[in-house]
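Worked example (supplementary).
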Amino acid sequence: MNCLLCNRRLNWRPSFADLLLPGALHPPVLCPTCQASFAPWPGSHCPGCGRTSHEGRLCAECRDWQDRLGWYVPVTSCYQYNQAMKDFMHRYKFLGDYRLRATFQRELTEKARALGDCFVAVPVSAETMVTRGFNQVAGMVDLPLTPALVVAGKGKTRQSEKGRAARLATPQPFALTNPALVAGKRVVLIDDVMTTGRTFYHAATLLRAAGAAQLRGLVLAA
Ligand SMILES: [Zn+2]
Ligand SMILES: [Zn+2]
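After joint prediction of all chains, the assembly is encoded as:
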């Protein structure tokens, strides 16, 4: 087995303790150098979007959502959105390297299962499915995903192609398929990267309106 990112050979052998532990063995998919380039998500972050710049308090954008909606969604992240993570997302999403979906799959899947029992991925537009060939969020987890949301209308412009102000002014890009899919459930809304929270909160608004009993957010990086 080689490192998924740099292709260096991984010299992993299960330790005696690994062999004694119940359950499947989990060999690493990254070499120590690549793994170390990603910064773990710290305990101190904005509770509404998980971004790390606001120590324990809601950031300005989440305060905005809180004022407008009267609620916010507690978000958990796996990593900080540092340069290594930006490079990773570029390779995975924009260069369309689908093999990389396995890189953080185990972490995301375990965290999601700890947060709830109904899993919804932020959807991508039909155009993105055609150009990229996959939903980057759905690919990164090993979970039964609930298809509660779709992209409404003509499909959204890619977030990365817009400026921050334009992103914040976007109208609701999603629609509910069937409220019964999430009503009364402990829903985990999963996205890849948290930037302004705009897309995330549009999706969250619909899930809440559909009667989700509990709503939590999970992202790979914030
Ligand atoms: Zn590597
Ligand atoms: Zn925030």
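Two points are worth noting when inspecting this output. Strands lie at 75-79, 118-121, 149-151, 174-176, 186-193, 214-221. Residues 41-221 form one domain.
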